[in-house]
């Protein structure tokens, strides 16, 4: 995951945004430049460029959306920033996009 290029991440982010835009009608979904952090080991402060998928729900708060996602099955951990829920495609394994879309659809429509 640490070796994925910025171009590959942007492509994954665009694909995820397109998938979520078709699934989540009551959310605004945008792409944002950002950074991924390795978070430990030999690279605790390293910042790697990424493209984030930002979700702005219209009917619930971002905090409420993040909480519902964490409590779901499977649990989904997201970032909260600037009144949005951020997803870093760097953290997704192949096939996770569809699982994520279903999880989001379930918690947004509650």
From TrEMBL:
InterPro entries: SelA-like. It is an enzyme of class 2 (transferase). The keyword Transferase applies. Coiled coil: none annotated. Keywords: Pyridoxal phosphate, Transferase. One of its GO terms (molecular function) is L-seryl-tRNA(Sec) selenium transferase activity. Its cofactor is pyridoxal 5'-phosphate. Its EC number is 2.9.1.1. This is L-seryl-tRNA(Sec) selenium transferase (Part 1). It comes from Syntrophaceticus schinkii. The lineage of its organism: Bacteria, Bacillati, Bacillota, Clostridia, Thermoanaerobacterales. The gene is selA.
